[in-house]
Amino acid sequence: MGVTAYDALVNWDLSRSDVAATLRPGLALTWSADPAQKTVWTFRLRPGVTFHDGSAFTADAVVWNLDKLMRRDSPQYDQAQATQAATWTKSIARYSVADPMTVQIETPAPNANLPYDMASIFMSSPARWEEMSRDWAKVASRPSGTGPWVVTKVVPRERVEFARNASYWDPRRVPRCDRLTIIPMPDAVTRVAALLNGQVDWIEAPAPDTLAQLRQAKMQVILNPYPHVWPYLLSCLPDSPFRDVRVRKAMNLAIDRDGICTLLNKTAMPAKGMVPPGHPWFGTPSFDVRYDPAEARKLLAEAGYGPKNPCKATFLISTSGSGQMQPLPMNEAIKESLEEAGFAVTLQAMDWEALRARRRAGAAAPENKGGHALNNSLGTADPTAIIQVAGSKLVPPVGINWGHFRDAETDALCEAVAVAFDPAEQTALLAKLHTRIVDRALWCFVVHDLNPRGLSPRVKGFVQAQSWQQDLTTVDLI
After folding, report:
1. What pLDDT score does 347 carry?
2. Buried b / exposed e across 298-326, counting CB within 10 Å, b at 16+?
3. Domains defined along the chain, listed by start
4. Residue 319 and residue 473: Cα distance in Å, rounded?
5. Span 430-465, pLDDT tens digits
6. Contact 417, 426 (CB under 8 A)
7. pLDDT at 298
8. Greatest C-alpha distance within the chain
9. Which candidate, 344, 241, 232, 251, places its Cα nearest to that of 296?
10. Is the Cβ–Cβ distance between 414 and 229 less than 8 Å?
11. Which residue has the higher pLDDT, 225 or 105?
12. CA 36, CA 20: separation in Å to the nearest integer?
């Protein structure tokens, strides 16, 4: 919905499937930080852009949109949108209009990663809000962005209908189809049946055990890596066995990742870190994440565990959830592998939102007492995603260092990445940071999701980007 109806100042380049998605100009033509203090960013806006309601996109509209997320005393402030956007607005201290087509945004400290945050803050129309009696609930029925698709009808929990925006500001991304309908179908079996009977042309996340059926019916099954890893976040607190790096490495060595991928019908690939080998940020770790139960048992023995004294650990897991793939069978299979290597694992299952709350609270929170690992899939698309899980100052609620991991070299690299304004320098530092993260076994890395989709043979032109977001403008029906 985001990149379908809206744009941000900075957009993701979703035009290629063979490389990780990078940033490109969106509603801002250029952006740059002041060379001296490096805390004030100047965004020069794209001229001639209009919202779907015909009103002009200007610097005032940008400030209005930031006010709706950050200024509680502004008439357009909306708590629901503010909560959704909090991950990305927390890096903003102040903002202002420099001229009708220029906005300045100030960060509390030098932060080279602000453009990545701006890619997730979408611009909606102030004029539409006024038109709908300044009521966000009414705006939700007739939203107005600047994106390549215009929302024409919203039926809550049933469907959203779009029409192509023939006057979209980027001629290369004017949609090839006239209309688009998005239908929520929570159940994977229902989605597969809808594709097979021709009710829909496209489904997200078909169940792994239905892929053969889809291929036999001549449906397209599309797989591609994207910035997403399915790990266990490990507690390094005094009451956790994972405070010992040998135990963290043993867990990484005790899991049969190929078996997990087979369980998922090859809709995942084994993980050797937060990002896969070949990614510019992977680096050169000396610790090889692999299946080696003998080495796992050896490391556990060195840490004081054995057949009569297994390494006891409790894992917090979900029953389902966004990006969690098949968490119950996956965790059961992993539990079996770990116990063969000398662990004694207890699985504590809960619903997805409850698990997310436990993740946001951090391992030291009272509700997480007795929990030693948390299974939460996470994105790895931008430098901040790497920094916020590793820096010792970024424990919840500030960041996602759930387990209170602390390592001086990691902290120094996190700080260096955050202020590396040269892209090549930042990439080199990220490779060093990821190397350190793997070598210290910050997490137990399990698999990368391959983001399966099922498409009718009629669908042509889709490019599955290595991204959480996808571009539907290239899609055609033959």
Report:
1. 98
2. bbbeebebeeeebbebbbbbbeebebbbb
3. 2-147 (3.90.76.10), 228-449 (3.10.105.10)
4. 34
5. 999 999 999 999 999 999 999 999 999 999 999 999
6. yes
7. 98
8. 73
9. 251
10. no
11. 105
12. 31
Instruction: State whether residue 78 is helix, strand or coil.
Output: coil
Residue identified by tokens 């996190």 is: 414
Locate 101 and state its tokens: 């087509």
> How does DSSP assign 166-188, residue by residue?
TT-S-GGGS-SSSEEEE-----H
Q: Are strands 311-318 and 149-155 parallel, antiparallel or unpaired?
A: unpaired
Other beta carbons less than 10 A from residue 16's beta carbon: 14
The verdict on whether omega for the bond into residue 277 sits within 30 degrees of 0, i.e. cis, is no
In DSSP notation, 362-374 reads -TTSGGGTT--EE
Helix ranges (H only) for 313-381 are 327-341, 352-361
Strand 311-318 and strand 373-375: the pairing is parallel
Structure tokens at 160: 């959203």
Question: How confident is the model over 61-74, as pLDDT tens digits?
Answer: 999 999 999 999 99
| Tokens 């980007």, located at residue | 465
On the question of pLDDT at 471 being above 90, the answer is: yes
Closest residue by Cα to residue 402 from 316, 344, 329: 316
Q: What is the spatial distance between Cα 358 and Cα 374, in angstroms, rounded to a whole number?
A: 8
* Whether the Cβ atoms of residue 207 and residue 188 lie closer than 8 Å to each other: yes
Q: Residue 63 is inside which H or E element, if any?
A: helix 59-70
Per-residue pLDDT tens over the stretch 201-210: 999 999 899 9
Backbone angles phi, psi at 311, to 5 degrees: -80, 105
Give the pTM: 0.90
- Given a contact cutoff of 8 angstroms between Cβ atoms, the answer to whether 204 and 182 are in contact is no
* pLDDT tens digit sequence for 130-175: 999 999 999 999 999 999 999 999 999 999 999 999 999 999 999 9
